Amino acid sequence: MSVSYTATVEVTGEGRNGGTVRSTDGLLDHRLSIPKELGGAGDATNPEQLLAAGWAACFLGALRHAAAQRTIRLASTEVTAEVTLHHGEDGEFSLLATLSPRLGGVDQRTAEELAEAAHRICPYSKATRDNIPVTIEAVAV
Question: Of 55, 93, 106, 140, which sits with the fewest C-beta atoms within 10 Å of its C-beta?
Fold first, then answer.
């Protein structure tokens, strides 16, 4: 059985510089702001934080799925996602990302194998594959 879901979000105003992001179901409703590090007010969330949040949540689900497929019981799971907006010398903006999963109850090699499997499974990882540099830094805890 095929299951699908479509998230619909509208951004109004000035976009990342003082705009608002709202989902049609009303559950997401946030102001946007340019980070202080880029000369903005930094008083609201920004698109990079939203991407990092979604990716980390999806990646954690993919980790748990990969472990279940291998009948590995994880004692704990956490994922930190860092999404960097880079302004190159050519004047163009680009993204790069680091995903840092921390897996409890497994050894380092298993943590790395599960992280690589999750990177193949996760829809966010698939969407960004070969588009932006991604570093995976798995740690067994």
Answer: 93
* Chain segment 110-129, per-residue pLDDT in tens: 999 999 999 999 999 999 99
Q: Count CB neighbours of 119 within 10 A.
A: 22
CA distances from 12 to 20, 30, 52 (A): 5, 11, 21
Strand partners, 101: 79
Exposed/middle/buried for residue 110 (C-beta within 10 Å: 0-12, 13-18, 19+) = middle
> Could you give the residue ranges of the DSSP H alpha helices within the chain?
47-69, 108-121, 123-128
Q: Please state, in angstroms and rounded to a whole number, the distance separating the CA atoms of residues 94 and 99.
A: 17
CA 8 to chain centre: 18
Q: What is the chain's mean pLDDT, rounded? A: 96
| Rounded CA separation 58/121 (Å) | 10
Are 97 and 58 in contact by the 8 Å Cβ rule? The answer is no
Burial class (CB in 10 A: 0-12, 13-18, 19+), 111: buried
Q: pTM for the complete prediction?
A: 0.93
